[in-house]
Specification:
Its EC number is 2.1.1.107. The strands form two sheets. Strands 3-2-4-1-5 form a five-stranded parallel sheet, with helices on both faces. Strands 6-7-10-8-9 form a five-stranded mixed sheet, with helices on both faces. It is elongated and about 70 Å long. The protein is built from seven helices and ten strands. The protein folds into two domains: 116 residues, Tetrapyrrole methylase, N-terminal domain (Cobalt-precorrin-4 Transmethylase, domain 1, 3-Layer(aba) Sandwich); 114 residues, Tetrapyrrole methylase, C-terminal domain (Methyltransferase, Cobalt-precorrin-4 Transmethylase, Domain 2). 23% of the residues lie in helices and 18% in strands. The protein is of the alpha/beta class.
Length: 266
């Protein structure tokens, strides 16, 4: 006798920057109801510490399999998702931040579509959004900064034309939000200076937004051109640049900014 297996769309859930209080209600519900939770980016797993889960949780270290770091998720992760989907399990795939903002090199959506596995994407809060709200950063205001542009700059060489365009946006009041920029900040700011951006352009940097050891600094291009002297464990850092960028609020846990000389932030 034929036995029907109820199947559920795979939920690709944005976990935000790490603070479980920033999860959407839908994300929290899907995590709580899940029977399998998979993730491959350690910060995405931070939120799980605050749930009483019955689900099987699997972390796949993609760094251990460099050959799998292509334009689609690793084979191990996909096989795990497919097997549990076919067996009628409720599967949640965690993605740090917002799944649709800089989704990284792992394109889950295309891979699942090729496998004819239905899915839904649940929005998450990006590190930039979390940081802007936490510090009440004035990144947009009618008549001043009418545009906010998010840029990923983990590589500078091929992005110089884009950065030169971004410099012109700065001149018109646009606020830039830079991700993965810390190692390349000197080149980025040099490019901006060549396009006429003054060295006193306001800059606010927020590290590990939403984490217990979150930190910030409010300065300008001149003093931050070499980036922040932080270790790998103190990333990610989001930079906000713009004529009107300024701090409007300080979280109670961090009333003093870090020092540029402070190499042991936290």
């Amino acid at each position: 006798m034929f036995e029907f297996t109820q199947k559920y769309p795979v939920a690709i859930v944005g976990t935000g920057p790490g603070d479980p209080d920033l999860l959407t209600v839908k994300a929290a519900r899907l995590i709580q109801e899940a029977e399998l939770i998979v993730y491959d980016c350690p910060p995405a797993g931070l939120v799980l510490e605050h749930f009483n889960l019955s689900a099987k949780v699997v972390y796949i270290d993609r760094r251990a399999n460099a050959a799998e770091q292509t334009s689609s998720p690793g084979e191990t992760l996909l096989n795990l998702i497919q097997e549990n989907y076919m067996n009628g399990k409720k599967v949640v795939r965690l993605k740090v931040g917002d799944p649709m903002l800089f989704g990284g090199e792992l394109n889950d959506y295309a891979a699942l579509s090729k496998m004819n596995i239905p899915f839904e994407v649940v929005a998450g809060i990006s590190a930039g959004t979390a940081a802007a709200c936490s510090y009440a950063l004035s990144i947009s205001a009618k008549g001043e900064s009418d545009a906010v542009t998010h840029l990923i700059v983990n590589e500078v060489g091929e992005n110089l034309p884009l950065l030169r365009d971004a410099a012109r946006w700065l001149q018109h009041g646009t606020t830039l939000v830079l991700y993965m920029a810390n190692p390349h900040l000197e080149k980025i700011f040099q490019c901006f200076a060549e396009e006429g951006i003054p060295e006193d352009m306001p800059v606010v940097a927020v590290g590990k937004a939403g984490w217990p050891d979150e930190f910030y600094i409010s300065s300008n291009m001149k003093h931050l051109k070499y980036g922040l002297p932080v270790s790998e464990g103190q990333s990610p850092i989001v930079y906000f640049l713009g004529k009107f960028v300024s701090l409007g609020n300080l979280p109670k846990a961090r009333l003093e900014p870090i020092s540029l000389r402070d190499t042991n932030i936290g």
